[in-house]
Amino acid sequence: MSDQYAVFGNPIEHSVSPMIHRSFAQQTNQHLTYSKQKIEQDVFEDRVSDFFSSGGCGLNITVPFKERAFEMCDVLSPRARYAGAVNTLLMKDGQLMGDNTDGIGLVRDIQDSCGWTLRNKRLLIIGAGGAARGALLPLLETQPQGVTLTNRTYARAELLQKRLDGHVDDVTVHAVPMEVLGNESIFDVIINTTSAGLLGETLALPAVLCGPNTCCYDMSYDMSANEPSTLFLQWARKCGADQVADGFGMLLEQAAESFSLWRGVLPSTTELRQSMR
Ligand code: ATR
Q1: What is the pLDDT of residues 84-128, one digit of tens each?
Q2: Which of 41, 51, 175, 247 is packed most tightly, with the most Cβ within 10 A?
Q3: CB 85 within 8 A of CB 70
Q4: Which residues are catalytically annotated?
Q5: Does the Cβ of 201 fall within 6 Å of ligand 1?
């Protein structure tokens, strides 16, 4: 029997993870199966335990279970510990190990696929929820010149900044209320981590933040669109930015990193990037 992998979530119908991982397996000549499983709220921990005790090799965890997966782990990677959330599980020497590949997926997509530089650049991160928490540590590891965190609910941005104590000491990170963003000057890179666009809501962002050379990245995406077209990216284009990207590439890169944790080989995302869009 081939090695078994799966993604657990709820809802899960629209997940393209099985398609992505099957393609990675084919590309790297690995023999495995990868399924998507809808898990009911009250049985998540039991289902994870059952999966591994019946010989399963690895799991991806998605909404709404990433924090519960985090709680279950015996061993956590530093980036998962900071994020407080786990999207990749594997069993090693009888211990359940948890990692979070979302942030590294974002960084790889930005640097390798978009070709944007983060090192020594001024970054603005919008949002302070789970998505921002997952992205922050890998973003800081690229050594930007400084990071500004902003959020509709300012207290959450401050909290995110405070959580960094002891994690980084060579990058300046400061939290700024959204209402006073108009006092800031143009950023090199702006990353939207909020769920506003998915809810059809626009962010109240002043145009002074973004110029023609600002690279704008939206972590959300619309699979049905041929090109990045989220509300945030529409705002960026209106500000004159011509370098924009949505989170579709991040989806592929976080999956590639999970695959490499499980199988020891990092697949290329180039072909899928073209064929799936
Ligand atoms: P996720 O795990 O996707 O990050 P989350 O933890 O619920 O989800 O966080 C959602 C983020 O989107 C938060 O930063 C939220 O801002 P608040 O902390 O103020 O709730 C942000 N968000 C959602 N809708 C928004 C809107 N209409 N305008 C601005 N920010 C919004």
Answers
A1: 999 999 999 999 999 999 999 999 999 999 999 999 999 999 999
A2: 247
A3: yes
A4: 66
A5: yes
